[in-house]
Amino acid sequence: MQLFVLVSIFAIISLGFVGIHTAYANVWIPDNEFKGFYDVNGTYTVIGAVKNTESTAIIPTITINVKDNDDTVSEKYTLSTVNSQKDIPFNLKIPQVEGKNATLEMPQVSFISTEHNFTDIEVVYDKTLKKHTDGHETGFIVNNDTSTAYGVKVYAAIYGKDGKFLDVGKSVETIDKIDPGQKIAFSMYPDPQHASMVSYYSCFTAGEDPTMPVTVTKDGKPYNFQYLTSGSVTDTKFDDATHSVLATVRYPFPDTGFVNFMFPQETGAEKFSVLSNGKPVEFVQSKDPDGYWHVALTLSPRSTSDLAISGFDQPGLTTPDNFRNYILVTIPIAAAAISITIWKKKKD
């Protein structure tokens, strides 16, 4: 389960979807734990934490808007599952913000309720949890559950001496799995500009959601992606003729369900479209902090949907960079041809 060691993947989230909620007071990002700053490399960074006081676990999606000079940069991110009465911090890099005086606007949060809960993994709060003089932290997590957990990450909200929210950290180790009773070390670092101000870390753990892996043949090569659904997905393949992922999704229950496909970025500019039983349907396209595209849609009660998802990169098509190079080559050639023609006419 290599591809799936990504922690933050998953799900749907739109104001217009049935069964999907706009976040009210029970799911929110506190104002004092939401801010933007330029990191040590000059990249605009947005940090915060989604708090869940729902009675069930949720899968949140946040919309971030940044006023950048006369433009507004809007990005949508799907985060990991958040258990009831828990938080999930986030640290998002937005390189599209090019100005040096950007203004961060209020975030929007939507979510879907889920019955899935993470395995019981805890940060060990004892003398082994240590903040070092350079501002980074080390410690251990332990699996108190009876089953193995996969793709575990440790997150932390980082605070200064005055209790000011400074940063969000994420463990640097790749923890592919943790067996019942096992303890594993972790470490995390703040942005260097905050290192001298760090007072303490408030840590959280997150494990892999129950995503399903798929491998199809695309453009003659293996292509891996994942999906999460409350129904079932079968007959997945890549159709070369339409350059689309095809799948049959069945949902036999009397309420509404969902399916969320997660595709790796190829160009970063993919614009997907979805056909269900040959007709266009509404869906939500977002991405997660690990850079995966999410294509999510609701499923009607007791339905079978033959889906065709298109919008993937097609090798051989002229990309903007290739087109620019093409122009740079062809313009001099054309100019030379015109010059020769004019020279010949003058000579005649």
Molecular structure report:
- This protein has one helix and 27 strands.
- By secondary structure, it is mostly beta strands.
- Strands 1, 5, 6, 8 and 9 form a five-stranded antiparallel β-sheet that branches. It has a five-stranded antiparallel β-sheet with strand order 18-19-22-26-25, with no helix packed on it.
- A hairpin with a 4-residue loop joins strand 25 and strand 26.
- It is globular.
- The termini are far apart.
- The model is unreliable at 1-22 and 318-347 (pLDDT under 50).
In a few lines, what is going on in this structure?
The protein is mainly beta and 348 residues long. The chain contains one helix and 27 strands. The N terminus and C terminus are likely disordered.
Entry keywords:
348 residues; mainly beta; 2 domains; 5-stranded antiparallel beta sheet; 8% helix; globular; disordered N terminus; disordered C terminus
